[in-house]
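Protocol step 4 of 5: obtain the predicted structure for the target chain.
Materials: sequence only (see below). No template structures provided, no constraints applied. The aim of this step is simply to have a reference model before the mutagenesis design in step 5. Sequence pasted as it appears in the construct record:
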Amino acid sequence: MYINVLGAGLAGCEAAWQIARRGIRVRLFEMKPHKMTPAHKSTDFCELICSNSLKAARVESAAGLLKEEMRRIGSLLMQCADKCSVPAGGALAVDRERFSAMVTEYIRNEPLIEVIDKEVTEIPDDSVTVIATGPLTSDALADRISELCGKSLHFFDAAAPIVTAESIDMECAFTASRYDKGGDDAYINCPMNKDEYESFREALVSAERAPRHDVDVQNPKVYEGCMPIEILAQRGLDTMRFGPMKPVGLRDPRTGHRPWAVLQLRSENEGKTMYNLVGFQTNLKFPEQRRVFGMIPALKNAEFVRYGVMHRNTFLDSPRLLDSDFSMRKRPELFFAGQMTGVEGYMESASSGMMAGINAVRRLQGKPTVTLPPQTMTGALSGHISDITVKDFQPMGANLGILPPLDENIRDKKMRAEKYALRSLEMLEPLLEKIKTGEC
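Step 4 output (structure tokens):
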């Protein structure tokens, strides 16, 4: 007996690991390195295309709660992320190259996982299958999925540039976290005064963008969480100052005052040799990125090790197609996982792969599949993607708003978040007991 897993991204690797942990052989198909996409640079698995941040670390937050649930269930990716973490204030960020290399090593060294380096162009029908090919699914397979599902939706993600640490002008920057949370060296802050900011915005909105033949460049259908900075800037003079360039919680030690606007740079690796322009996903042409982002004083001599890129993202109309166990309603032996299901975010994708893998094994063994209670973040996300009452389906990341209300009305925001976390982890215990005894 074996299970097919298509795609060695975050969802696919997590699914394959969960299947192997339960003693079932896995055939893991990955088209890299034989076929690469414009967004992929590495031949390793689980390449982080956009940010290297896995969002908030504290358990009393939606993203932190999801990660803690995954830790307790036995997530491979959380194990690797914790080992590869880099300073990021209150967030869990990873050295992206070390993270991908570590996951790849675990997967390739697992005897029950056979990695098959080839592009899959047809949906397998020889066994239970998990499709986790992600937003960069190859055209041939995407066509087959579209035919099977009757409808798929497309939007576009964008990645931010990365610069070398030594090229940042620290005379025009300072290190600090907002409100001094998470250490004073988690971020490099690049302040701008009013004139600098307005000149920068004017150049940004008029800069030349990379041509695309498959999207309206001026009005692309982009998920808000990955909005290109130039699109955000054209929405208004101060949209960036209330978004990724907000100065709140920061004070420039050179002036003693809050800057007019701030770009934050976050470490990309453990050695802090590279930094990501936080929130600066972009589709500008490469020379334009050098010119326009170089108008930020601290980046006037910046050396770019990766330019921002924009790439296709595809997701299903999941409420019409999938059950909460991530299986397809009309083909129960076929599971989907990752961003194509409509979960938004790295760990959200891995979480869906974790549950799809667990349930693929149970389907193969003729056992009932499992869905976590809606009071857990994992269960709430699977409930969202399978909720047939949702009409205009859009990707959803972990957030407290998708959890059922608490039995008591708690006004204090921090205390309310703590209560949500306690309730979720208590509801998780029955599954953990089943995992411990080998029942699940």
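Step 4 remarks: The domain at 2-156+312-436 is CATH 3.50.50.60 (FAD/NAD(P)-binding domain). The mean pLDDT is 91.
Proceed to step 5.
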